[in-house]
C-alpha cells in the first residue's frame, strides 16, 4: 500500500503539487491523468525519491520512504521514465539485465528473464539483444524501457507515458499484456498518461490531476457516471457506443434483461445495481453484459479501435 499524506512539492516559488492525499492499494492499477504540467511526472519522481518532497510524507506499507535505503526502494520499483533512458553504451540485453544483476541473480536466470521479456514486448531476442539503443527506433526503445522496468519482478511499477511513442496496434497489445501481468501477479501499478481513453481502459482507479491538485479520484465507472465538474467532463468526451458493442456472446445464470436498443447511458446506470444483464433482441436472449467487461470494452471503444456507430 502506498500512502500520500499532505504531499507538496515546490520549485522555487512555484507550488507544483499541493496537499496531495491518496492511498493506493496493493495490487491496484492506478492511473494518473491530467493536462501537461499538472504534476504527474513529479508525483512519480517523488515516490522513487528522484526528487525530495517539500512537505508531507509518502509511505509504502506504513513505512516512510525517507527512512528506507534508497537502493532497495528503487530495486523494488520498476520505473519507466517519460524520456527514454536506456544506457547508450550498453547493449539491449545489458540494459534489461541491470537490476537483476544488482540483485545478484544467476546468469542463467537473467538470460531466461531477458528472453522472456523481449518476447513479451515483441522484440525477438536473437535479433535485438546485441544491439545498442541508438540502433532501435523510439517506439522500440520505449518497449525495452518497459521490459527493463519489469526485469527484476518489482512489487511496484511506475510507468510514465510508457506507450506514448507506439503505434496503435503495439500500444493495444502492450496495454493488454500489462492488464494480464497485473491480473496474474498483482503488481501495484502507477501509470501516467494524458490520454483519458487509455486511463479508462487500464485503471482500477483514476486520479485526475489539475494544476497540482486532485480534481477527482475514482473508478472508471464513477468517472463515467458522476464526473464532478466541467473540467472532468471535458476529459470524458466520448463517442457514441451501442449496448451490443459491450456485450459478450453466450447466456449464463439468471439476470435482468434489457433490449439491445437500450441506450448505453441507461445500461451504465443499471450496472451500478447489478453486475450482469442479458440482452434481448426479437424476444431472444442474444448475449450477456458483465459490469467489468463492459467498462473495459467502453475504454476500448473510446480508443477509437472498435467499430463505433
Ligand atoms: N526541475 C524543475 N524545476 C522547475 N520546475 C519544474 C521542474 N520539473 C518540473 N517542473 C514544473 O513542475 C510542473 C509539473 O511538471 P511535471 O513534469 O510533473 O508535469 P506532467 O504532469 O508530468 O506534464 P507532462 O504531461 O507534460 O509530462 C510543471 O509546471 C513543470 O514546469
Ligand atoms: Mg510528465
UniProtKB/TrEMBL annotation:
Similarity annotation: Belongs to the ABC transporter superfamily.
Protein origin, superkingdom: Bacteria
Pfam families cross-referenced by the UniProt entry: ABC_tran (PF00005)
Reaction it catalyzes: a quaternary ammonium(out) + ATP + H2O = a quaternary ammonium(in) + ADP + phosphate + H(+)
EC number: 7.6.2.9
Subunit structure of this chain's protein: The complex is composed of two ATP-binding proteins (OpuCA), two transmembrane proteins (OpuCB and OpuCD) and a solute-binding protein (OpuCC).
Every ABC transporter domain range: 2-236
InterPro entries noted in UniProt: AAA+_ATPase (IPR003593), ABC_transporter-like_ATP-bd (IPR003439), ABC_transporter-like_CS (IPR017871), CBS_dom_sf (IPR046342), P-loop_NTPase (IPR027417)
Organism: Savagea serpentis
Keyword match Nucleotide-binding: yes
Molecular functions per Gene Ontology: ABC-type quaternary ammonium compound transporting activity; ATP binding; ATP hydrolysis activity
Keyword line: ATP-binding, Nucleotide-binding, Transport
Protein name: Carnitine transport ATP-binding protein OpuCA
Amino acid at each position: 500500500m502506498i500512502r500520500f499524506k499532505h504531499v507538496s512539492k515546490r520549485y522555487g516559488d512555484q507550488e507544483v503539487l499541493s496537499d496531495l492525499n491518496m492511498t493506493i492499494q496493493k495490487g491496484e492499477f492506478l492511473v494518473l491523468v491530467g493536462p501537461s504540467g499538472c504534476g504527474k511526472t513529479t508525483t512519480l519522481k517523488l515516490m522513487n525519491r528522484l526528487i525530495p518532497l517539500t512537505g508531507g510524507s509518502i509511505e509504502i506499507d506504513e513505512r516512510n520512504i525517507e527512512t528506507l535505503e534508497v537502493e532497495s526502494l528503487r530495486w523494488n520499483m520498476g520505473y519507466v521514465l517519460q524520456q527514454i533512458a536506456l544506457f547508450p553504451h550498453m547493449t539491449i540485453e545489458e540494459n534489461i539485465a541491470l537490476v537483476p544483476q544488482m540483485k545478484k541473480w544467476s546468469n542463467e536466470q537473467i538470460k531466461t528473464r531477458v528472453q522472456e521479456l523481449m518476447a513479451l514486448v515483441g522484440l525477438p531476442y536473437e535479433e535485438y539483444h546485441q544491439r545498442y539503443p541508438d540502433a532501435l527506433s523510439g517506439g522500440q526503445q520505449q518497449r525495452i524501457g518497459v521490459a527493463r522496468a519489469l526485469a527484476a519482478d518489482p512489487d511496484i511499477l511506475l510507468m510514465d507515458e510508457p506507450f506514448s511513442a507506439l503505434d496503435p496496434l503495439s500500444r493495444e497489445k502492450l496495454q493488454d499484456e500489462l492488464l494480464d501481468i497485473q491480473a496474474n501477479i498483482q503488481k501495484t501499478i502507477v501509470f501516467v498518461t494524458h490520454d483519458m481513453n487509455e486511463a479508462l481502459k487500464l485503471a482500477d482507479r483514476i486520479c485526475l490531476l489539475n494544476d497540482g491538485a486532485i480534481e477527482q479520484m475514482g473508478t472508471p465507472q464513477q468517472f463515467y457516471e458522476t464526473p464532478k465538474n466541467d473540467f472532468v467532463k471535458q476529459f470524458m468526451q466520448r463517442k457514441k457506443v451501442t449496448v451490443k458493442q459491450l456485450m459478450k456472446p453466450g447466456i449464463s445464470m439468471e439476470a435482468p434483461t434489457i433490449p439491445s436498443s437500450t441506450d448505453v447511458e441507461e445500461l451504465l446506470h443499471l450496472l451500478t445495481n447489478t453486475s450482469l444483464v442479458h440482452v434481448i433482441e426479437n424476444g431472444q436472449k442474444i448475449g450477456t453484459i458483465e459490469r467489468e467487461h463492459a467498462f473495459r470494452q467502453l475504454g476500448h471503444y473510446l480508443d477509437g479501435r472498435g467499430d463505433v456507430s
